[in-house]
Amino acid sequence: MSSPSPALATRLEAARAVVHDAAQMAMAMRPPPGGPQASQKSAQDWLTETDGAVEAFIANRMKALFPDDGFQGEEGGVARTGSLRWVVDPIDGTSNYARGRCRWCISLGLLDGDEPVAGVIDAPALGEVYTALRGYGAFLNGKRIQASPVKDPASSMIEMGWSNRVPKPVFMEKMDAIMAMGTMPRSGGCGALALADVASGRLDGYIEIVINLWDVAAALPLLAEAGARVSPFLQEGGLTGPATIMAANPHIAQALSKAVSIPLA
Questions:
Q1: Annotated binding residue at 114?
Q2: CATH superfamily of the 6-144 domain
Q3: In whole angstroms, what separates CA 265 from the centre of its chain?
Q4: Any bridge partners for residue 211, and if so which?
Q5: Which of 46, 179, 207, 246 lies 20 to 30 Å from 165, alpha-carbon distance?
Q6: Contact, 188 vs 196, CB < 8 A?
Q7: pLDDT band for position 43 (50/70/90)?
Q8: From its phi and psi, is residue 261 left (phi > 0), alpha (psi between -120 and 50) or beta?
Q9: What is the 3-class SS of 40-91, one letter each residue?
């Protein structure tokens, strides 16, 4: 295997350090356990002071390090354009974060045009950092990861994300199809970590009917490097707006795709 592009390898290491510092900031600002300490953008869609602070911190640091790179954030939109573009979700799993729970993360992905090439997902309350560089592997705390070997849907675990933008009948139809396969359904409230769980083999699949680029940009290289199968999220509108994503281990991907009527790439 040839060495990775020095430019991309340098960016990944820089991103890991920046996200680490941002994660420590988020930990220091994390609310104690209890009722949500946040404002609501819409039903079950939360925003905390930390979201804005972390995004601004990462945006400023990445601009100083790589001024020619583009930047897009969940809260601030597209701040800069460039052939290389950073995409950040400052707190993915805000509903968990706002209640002092542990299942949340900071997600920073790098796109080269429309190709995801690198990603960092830092879940500081869990003590876990995922990294990936396209063509050179996916890692959890420095150890290589791969998708689950589970082949029997009746032995599998599938997570499905919930969104208030999805009509209840559509959500229930997909959930019924999952359960009809004999799988164990889950919902954890953090899309980036769920996709990382598919990459690491902790989950056999993840589905979300409406999800945004900032939620998945860092996870897409992880999934590719870990051998997971993924629906064509970017090709079906994910670069410019919300779209559907399905990721699964390669052994059950086809059966899951057929059951929930979501095509694979």
A1: no
A2: Fructose-1,6-Bisphosphatase, subunit A, domain 1 (3.30.540.10)
A3: 18
A4: 243
A5: 179
A6: no
A7: very low
A8: left
A9: EEECCEEECHHHHHHHHHHHHHHHHHCCCCEEEECCCEEEECCCEEEEEEEE
d(CA 33, CA 250): 38
pLDDT tens across 162-212, in order?
888 899 999 999 999 999 999 999 999 999 999 999 999 999 999 999 999
Cα angle 45, 248, 12 (rounded to 5 degrees) comes to 70
End-to-end CA distance of the chain: 25
DSSP secondary structure letters along 197-265 = HHHHTS-SEEEEEEE-HHHHTTHHHHHHHHT-EE--TIIIIITTS-EEEEEE-TTTHHHHHHHHT----
The CATH code that applies to domain 153-260 is 3.40.190.80
Q: Has 74 been labeled as part of a binding site?
A: yes
For 44-92, how does the pLDDT look when each residue is reduced to its tens digit (9 = 90+)? 444 578 989 999 999 999 999 999 999 999 878 777 788 999 999 999 9
91 labelled binding-site residue: yes
Q: Which two tokens stand for residue 152?
A: 């029997």
The domain segmentation of the chain, as residue ranges, is 6-144, 153-260
Whole-Å CA distances, 95 to 2, 80, 90, 172, 263? 42, 28, 13, 22, 29
Q: Which two tokens stand for residue 149?
A: 């070997």
Q: What whole-number distance in Å separates Cα of residue 124 and Cα of residue 22?
A: 10
Measured between alpha carbons, how far is 172 from 191 in angstroms, rounded to an integer?
18
User: What does the alpha-carbon distance between residue 4 and residue 1 come to, in Å, rounded to a whole number?
Assistant: 9
User: What is the SS3 assignment for 121?
Assistant: strand
Is 112 among the annotated ligand-binding positions?
no
